[in-house]
């Protein structure tokens, strides 16, 4: 997914500062996944798109562009559209995804996080997706949508032994990033009403071994899901942020939990979360349009949150001393 122009410029600076080569690998051929089947990948600089043919495990009626995003070094950040199976699962939707490109094996791999309790016939075990470039002269094998038992009987083609693409994609350490700059990019994307781009940046922070419990990134992921009206996912990230964060980060997570609960019309829980946010020291960041929008939503509910809103608006957050909250461009 292409970033807005100002965000793109900031992203270039952040990536170069953190050691990334801005131009990603050029993938202009048909790649193959064991369960996924063939996909036509096309690069334009750091931008990558992927088009899957009709049929396949998701039984697409026509060829469809299902992969879209950008490389930062050897890391692809974007979204992929997949089908899901399960009683309460959305039949088809787009998911944020982070994939790692292995130059030696010419393979692009990573885990796609589906909705809780859901599976996809296009993915391998544990949601693993590995797309490999075929060897010269190899024949691409379309995946039939009507013969799953035949697919299971087939031996995976040219799967490397231990140390193969799947393991490399899972275990290879992602190149270090400038955490503060990447958080700022994610927050700027939220302000620009671009939650998918925002979640890509927050995921990049969380992929760092020392930052896997970064409360600001977790809260950012929660807000991104909230903006996409994915409340269960939003609450999951916000709960994790509250459990690992402290001080301002914990207060921020409580505030956005209140916003999600208010949107779900769970007013008692929203009041409690907003009370906890204020008790933890939360105050509205100056000029944050997302926060102002949510405060107005609380105000629209009449006197229910009146006392808490008065308390919040009576505070003034010190600028430049701490991260300014989800959606702010000034952490």
Descriptive notes:
The structure is a single chain. With 331 residues, this protein is α+β, with helices and mostly antiparallel strands. It has helices at 5-17, 148-153, 165-171, 179-191, 195-206, 215-227, 231-244, 247-263, 267-279, 289-300, 306-313; strands at 29-33, 37-44, 47-52, 64-72, 75-83, 92-102, 107-111, 128-132. Strands 1-2-3-4-5-6-7-8 form an 8-stranded antiparallel beta sheet. Helix 4 packs antiparallel against helix 5 (195-206), helix 4 (179-191) runs parallel beside helix 6 and helix 5 (195-206) runs antiparallel to helix 6. The radius of gyration is 21 Å and the shape is elongated.
The helix/strand class is alpha+beta
**Distance between termini?**
24 Å
Shape: elongated
Number of helices: 11
Let me know the largest β-sheet. 8 strands, antiparallel
Segments where pLDDT lies below 50 for 5+ residues? 1-22, 136-173, 318-324, 327-331
Radius of gyration: 21 Å
Secondary-structure element series = HEEEEEEEEHHHHHHHHHH
Major β-sheet strand ordering: 1-2-3-4-5-6-7-8
Topology at a glance:
Elements: H1 5-17, E1 29-33, E2 37-44, E3 47-52, E4 64-72, E5 75-83, E6 92-102, E7 107-111, E8 128-132, H2 148-153, H3 165-171, H4 179-191, H5 195-206, H6 215-227, H7 231-244, H8 247-263, H9 267-279, H10 289-300, H11 306-313
Antiparallel strand pairs: 1-2, 2-3, 3-4, 4-5, 5-6, 6-7, 7-8
Helix pairs in contact: 1-4, 4-5, 4-6, 5-6, 6-7, 6-8, 7-8, 8-9
Structural descriptors:
331 residues; alpha+beta; eight-stranded antiparallel sheet; 39% helix; 18% strand; disordered C terminus
